[in-house]
Amino acid sequence: MELTYDKAMKEMQDGKFRPVYLLHGEEPYFIDSICKYIEDHALTEMDKAFNFTVVYGKDVNADQVIAQAQQFPMMGARQVVIVKEAQAMRSLDPVLGYLEKPVNTTVLVFAHKVKAMNKTTKVYKKFKEKAAIVASNPMKDWQLKKWLPDFLKTNYNLSIDANAVDLLVEFQGTEVQKLVNEINKINIKKDLNNITAKMIQENIGFGKDFDIFEVQDALASRNKTTLTRIVKYFETIMKPGDIIGIISILYKYFSQSYVVSVSRKNKAELFAELGITEWGYKKLKVGIDHYGYKLRDAMNIVKEYELKSKGINSQNVGPAELLKEMLFKIVNL
To answer: Taking the alpha carbons of 207, 212, 213, 216 in that order, is the dihedral positive or negative?
Structure first.
């Protein structure tokens, strides 16, 4: 049976542990999280001394794993056997027989990282028929931005502002463990209820004087005075990698503004397509009103400076200078 991560976690939190799990995919966070939960909650601390086994795929074969799984627990209700880095095992074919009749007092976990298991194999099909499968796939940035607020609320009792989600994903990427690590750094005392864009900005290295979305707003409204102050500020604190995040946010802003400006869809359809709210729509309208048909030109300038920030068609130019050039090219369209 194929389960979502949330479904698998809910079952275990309710006390239900299945006899066999296959956790597989490129995103390690969900695999590690389920393994950790099983390790921490499937057995009491006393039972762990006799009934908890962790092995690594490169060190064992499937026959050895099955032999361990077929043993009965000592002085406890169950045993746990976790095979980490199961993708390194030569073959899982010997598991086919065990899956026909797994031992109910064993929780056997295969943590298959790096890549998803081939779904056309006999072994995968048997896992799907007889065991619990959780696919741990990487998410696209838009999927992650939609998923992250609920995840933080459920697992950390934290709210997060939409702008904060944008910043976090644009600057840290879509690897869930990195994002969780950043949230934990911000909430190190475990006393926060909400994560703001300002907190993300300060945590990833920017100072306190300007929120990065003020760059977007000043550019959208062609506010040259504010842009001049922003550029002077960033000249003193900007690191080489910072411009990549700024470029990502600006490109998203101008591309969404362009889509809204040419679309004949109604608001509801646009909101669903772009993943925006009424508040976000009003933000986009500012850029549309100030740039109109030049929105495509603004997008092209941002793309040009994305390449320059990576050293293409640009030599010995610092990130602050590139930012200055890009902003003033756009604002003077």
So the answer is: positive
Q: Give the domain-ending residue among 154, 174, 203.
A: 203
65, amino acid identity:
V
The number of C-alpha atoms within 13 Å of 104 and in the hemisphere containing its C-beta is 1
What local confidence, expressed as pLDDT, does residue 210 receive? Answer: 60
How far from 281 is each of 260, 265, 275, CA to CA, in Å? 9, 13, 10
Judge contact between 168 and 22, C-beta under 8 A. Answer: no
Q: Residue 204, Cβ neighbours under 10 Å: how many? A: 20
Q: Is the domain of 6 the same as that of 126?
A: yes
Residues 226 and 290 in one domain: yes
Express each pLDDT in 8-32 by its tens digit: 999 999 999 999 999 999 999 999 9
Confidence of residue 206 (pLDDT cuts 50, 70, 90): low
Q: Which of 44, 113, 47 is nearest to 83 (CA)?
A: 113
294 pLDDT above the threshold of 80: yes
Q: How many domains in the chain?
A: 3
DSSP code for 106: E
Residue with tokens 């200078």, as numbered in its chain = 321
